[in-house]
Each structure stands twice: as structure tokens, then as C-alpha cells.
Amino acid sequence: MGFREDIAWQVCRHSITRHTRGDVEIYPLKQPTLRELGLYTRTADKATTEFSITRFLTPYLAAHDGWSIFVDCDFLLSGDVTKLLDIVSSDKALYCVQHDYTPANAVKMDGKEQTTYPRKNWSSFMAFNGAHPKVKALTPAVVNSSSPAYLHRFNWLEDEDMGALDLEWNFLEGEYAKPDQMPMCVHYTNGGPWFENWQDVDFGNEWRTERDMYLASTQASEQAAE
């Protein structure tokens, strides 16, 4: 994971822990580690991020019958993520925001092509029901052998297995008009303020404020350890 992805992930994690009242465990999906453990065996691909496919290992790694959440690193949360537990229903295998849009930009800030495909960005925030048989069937063998389209388009589920979340749980900055209030989850899908030339984005100030709080807490921890 490069520095730009790392700072995005650190700020995302900080925003989650700062707003969550209960206990929450957060882990980065590091592909080299998953390969070392034999859980990820796919050949290298041209995916934008190293967690393009490994995200589907989330419920297997959680190893329990409760709910687990995958969230891209380019998110910022403004509220308690455990509120999701008040929304989900045990008869669903998975919940996500079911976007229906055409990307506003052809190229992302990092120069990568902005591709368009069915159910785009649905998999950037997923809540998995670990007790559901369809989720239990999402084993490393399936994740390692299935096509990206099969996984990201949720061909391993029936439509009735999927629950729909409100847009605030995966608000695509730059794709939707800025609301009056900050959504629960802002997704800087085209690029975020961690890019030097990508500062003028909706909720950019909120991200920079969160970053500064994260850096201050890191500095304080380092000084305390000295």
C-alpha cells in the first residue's frame, strides 16, 4: 500500500473509531499477508487497488456469524458505523448502496481510467451477514477462482438476498449533488484531498480536519512512548 493509500486508510480508520461508541475491530486487507497465509492465490492483475478482490474475503476473515463490513480506504465517516445494525435484517446476505449512475469523469485523479460497469461502486461498502448460507459459501476457493465481474456484480447472490442502504452510507463525492448535511459515509471515489492537486472537493475540509486529528494523535502517542 503506497503512502497516498496509507494516509487515506489511516484517516478513514480514525474517523470510524472516533465516532463509534462500541467496540469495533478494524483491519487493513494487505494482499502480501493474505498471500503468505495462502488465502489469496490469484495471479497479479491490473486492478486499481490491491483489495479489489480481497474485499470478498471479509466475512471469511471475520470468522463469525455476526455482521462484518468492508469499506474502501477512500471513505470518511461522520457517525457511528454500528448504527447499521439497527437497519439490517437477518434474512439478507448482504447490504450495500445500490447506485445507478454514470461516472461524471472519464479519468480519476491518479490517472486511472474511470470504467463503467453494472453495479459500479456497490462493492465499495458492503455489510456481510456471516450467518447467511450464501455468505458462508463465499470461501477463499470461490474468491480465488471467480471472475472479477462475478464477484463485483454479485452474481453469487440472488437479488432477494441483497438489502439496499440509503445513499448516505456510500455517498459518492463528485457524482451526487452536495447535501446540506454531511452523509454518514463520504466516498471520495474520483480522488480525495490526499492528492496535492485534488483539494477542492466536497467535504474536503472535513477530511483535512480528520487527517490533522489523526496526525496529532499519532504524534502524541510517539511522544508518550519516548
Helix/strand layout:
Elements: H1 3-19, H2 31-36, H3 58-62, E1 67-71, E2 75-77, E3 94-96, E4 125-129, H4 133-136, H5 140-145, H6 148-152, E5 162-164, E6 171-172, E7 185-187, H7 204-225
Parallel strand pairs: 3-5, 6-7
Antiparallel strand pairs: 1-4, 2-7, 3-4
Helix pairs in contact: 1-7
Brief digest:
With 226 residues, the protein is of the alpha/beta class. Helix content is 29%, strand content 11%. The chain has a four-stranded mixed β-sheet with strand order 1-4-3-5.
Describe the structure.
The chain has helices at about 5-20, 30-35, 60, 135, 140-145, 150, 205-225; strands at about 65-70, 75, 95, 125-130, 160-165, 170, 185. With about 230 residues, it is of the alpha/beta class. The strands form 2 sheets. It has a 4-stranded mixed beta sheet. Strands 2-7-6 form a 3-stranded mixed beta sheet. The protein is globular.
**Overall average residue pLDDT:** 90
> What's the total helix number?
7
Identify low-pLDDT runs: none
Query: How far is the N terminus from the C terminus?
Result: 28 Å
* Helix-strand topology string: HHHEEEEHHHEEEH
Structural class by SSE content: alpha/beta
Strand percent estimate: 5-15%
Rg computed from alpha carbons, rounded to a whole number of angstroms: 17 Å
Helicity range: 25-40%
Shape: globular
Query: Sheet bearing the most strands, described?
Result: 4 strands, mixed
Count the strands? 7
The order of strands across the largest sheet is: 1-4-3-5
